[in-house]
Amino acid sequence: MRAVRFHGARDIRVEDVAEPSDRLAPDEVLIAPAVSGICGTDLHEFIAGPIVTPQAPHVFTGASNPQILGHEFSARVLAVGGAVGHVKAGDRISIQPLLSPRNDYYGKRGLYHLSPQMGCVGLSWAWGGMAEKAVIKDYNAQPVPDGITDEQAAMIEPAAVALYGVDRGGIAAGSTVLVSGAGPIGALTILAAKAAGAATIIVSEPNPNRRRIVTEIAPYAHVVDPRDGTLAQVVGDLTEEGVGVDVALECVGLETSLNACVQAVRRQGKVVQVGLHMKPASIDAMLWALKDITVEATWCYPTQIWPRIARMIAAGIFPVEKVITARIDARDVVAKGFEALLDPSGEHLKILVTT
Known about the structure:
With about 350 residues, the chain is an alpha/beta fold. Helices cover about 25% and strands about 25% of the residues. The chain folds into 2 domains: about 1-145 and about 320-355, Medium-chain alcohol dehydrogenases, catalytic domain (Quinone Oxidoreductase, Chain A, domain 1, Alpha-Beta Complex); about 160-295, 3-Layer(aba) Sandwich (Rossmann fold), CATH 3.40.50. The longest helix has 14 residues, at about 155-170.
């Protein structure tokens, strides 16, 4: 079968690999992936990997490179193991890709995403979404309603990152919000904040193409170029008595973006770290204290969030499909996928791959 496999930095190949066996363990599900998104984590692997893809066998899953990519995807169930009862052959599903022990400290508390042994389908598992077939655990298979498309179902995973940040920020009806960074997660965070009831959404994004895209998908947002020095003025003009936003969500993973969020948030407001920092950031801790702020850091998402997002999509209040900017075949995954997303002009947000 055809599969997209990561071998090393700048070495992603479309290869013919053996199909998974249809002899399933009791808790396994055999699936046919439909569409899979290219994630920022995949891009980091392509540029400088292996980072999270395992060179030695993974501590929990036993997987090692070369790795079939794809952890943001939807699929159709082909067969199920004897102990699987919540899905059956023919069902459409969205994949919740995190794999972790059910009986360690975090697993016993339902905090599966916090296990130090956590693995991920498409990053540290024998299979991934950029292939014609895959095997997953029963808990990775999340049924989706008929009212959402395969593309929307594939977008639930990155949407979970965004919605978790919104949840941690406590965004509610009438909130004022800053989203710093309008990449794919930032764009989904804007949509999630709107779905949560935010009344005022300010977006800080230096890339003109991304500002244009955000203006198209979220015309209610006030989009600012942080390089022109007007962000503080816009925040002051759009918040009560100019005090600052209730919640600022940092979706870039850069020191300047984090500090801009701290500057923009009101006293006793919240700053939520959604983007992942690749290096330490210098911060003004005294300013944090003077403003009496809360800083929330997020890692992945609680795995139980899937049905909620599916309902939001089906109800039309979380239009995740708006973030999709291209659809490609797996044969073009490097040139039209990875390279396109790395183009500094920023023409794309989310590219979906069909195998």
